[in-house]
Amino acid sequence: MSKWTEKLPEAAREFIAGRRVDEVECIIADIAGVARGKAMPASKFAKQANYFLPNSIFLQTITGEWADNPAGSFTEPDMILVPDFSTATAAPWTADVTLQVIHDAEDQAGRPVPTAPRNVLKRIVELYNAEGWQPIVAPEMEFFLVARNIDPNMPIIPPMGRSGRRAAGKQAYSMSAVDEYGKVIDDIYDFAEAQGFEIDGILQEGGAGQVEINLAHGDPVALADEIFFFKRLIREAALRHDCFATFMAKPIEGEPGSAMHIHHSVVDKKTGKNIFSDRKGGETPEFMHFIAGMQTHLPAAVALLAPYVNSYRRYVPDFAAPINLEWGRDNRTTGLRVPISGPEARRLENRLAGMDCNPYLGIAASLACGYLGLKAGKMPRAECTQDAYNMETDLPYNLGDALDLLEEDAALREALGVEFCNVYDSVKRNEYKEFLQVISPWEREHLLLNV
């Protein structure tokens, strides 16, 4: 075994199983959460001390365009990519023996690049650590399996199931519904096992072809890495069976959207105890402060939790997505839900994030809101014990409004990093501007001859 392969996690070593590694993919998440980087022969990876990418990748929009650099002139200097060998994992869908390794981005002076999403999340975790806290998250991933769609002008439709019929909606938790595309699910399990990932459960969600995967709770950076990897492996599993997997927030008209619900708790690093529960098992003031921080800062954080124009199509009443920031115990109509649990597992579920968000940035933004609440020490609004869909909304209606709110929240910008927020704003306003240039079928149908 070569020197660098000795650093690999157990699952990666088991995947190799004495075979020669052919290729290593050196990857990093851009602002959208897209894997950027380069692949190289394993022999070259073993010999090369440094890997480089231009820092301009964090100015690239989802359409492939380049946003304006908020700092002004730009010479596209190289970043140094530093492999995090704890993330090394298989790419089990490839024909040869291939490993993926997530890299951290440093500038040429060895400092973390502040616009790299993984560094943004690490920055937030360090804020907690400085207070003696360790944040814990448990994400839920929702996505759709859909029929292949190669024409953007055509609507997305559900995939064909093993019965020969298209997947149907309104079948939440149905075992027979999820069995319709069981071969895709089998490959997801196989790929996850080969990559050393633990799936807490897979279930049919409410949409036609909509699936939910729950992940076990743990360290925020490690879980964001897993979601980053999971998106790729799920897409690869779907392609093997003549369908697409999409993490778009609202891909099918009339169906619910896909969320990335995030469960949060915070542990005292010295005692290992959940700071949301006291010695008698009751709720602590810190738990209330955390909720208050969410209610105060989430309107601004929505720009990161709902990063595209399509994201805001999720926030409609009675479609399993929140429309406000009310909180309640075991109340799924609220944006902030306190699930049933014992004192040691007391947590808050943020139901706002869409599955289209960058997992590093979505988790970072959510944790930042809670952190600011813990520091401010304020109390939340009274618990919502009714149907929150009957209450007023307090979320931005579109991406432009969300970016305005982020620009106005100085505390959240400081927590996430002002330089990062400026770059994020530039990228997203560029995407929003591009969207506004597109004339939709609805406009042509109803306005062309009628106005």
In helices, the fraction of residues equals 25-40%
Largest sheet: 8 strands, mixed
Strand content: 15-25%
Gyration radius from CA atoms, angstroms: 22 Å
Shape: globular
Number of helices: 12
**Secondary-structure element pattern, one letter each:** HEEHEEEEHEHHEEHEEHEEEHHHHH
Structural class determined from secondary elements: alpha+beta
Ranges where pLDDT stays below 50 over 5 or more residues in a row are none
Mean pLDDT: 94
How far from one another are the termini? 72 Å
Strand tally: 14
Specify the oligomeric state: single chain
Domain GS beta-grasp: 10-110
Protein name: Glutamine synthetase family protein
Keywords: ATP-binding, Ligase, Magnesium, Nitrogen fixation, Nucleotide-binding
Function: Catalyzes the ATP-dependent biosynthesis of glutamine from glutamate and ammonia.
Give your account of this protein's structure:
It is built from 12 helices and 14 strands. The protein is an alpha+beta fold and 451 residues long. The strands form 2 sheets. Strands 7, 8, 9, 10, 11, 12, 13 and 14 form an 8-stranded mixed beta sheet that branches. Strands 1, 2, 3, 4, 5 and 6 form a 6-stranded mixed beta sheet that branches. The N and C termini lie far apart (72 Å). The mean pLDDT is 94.
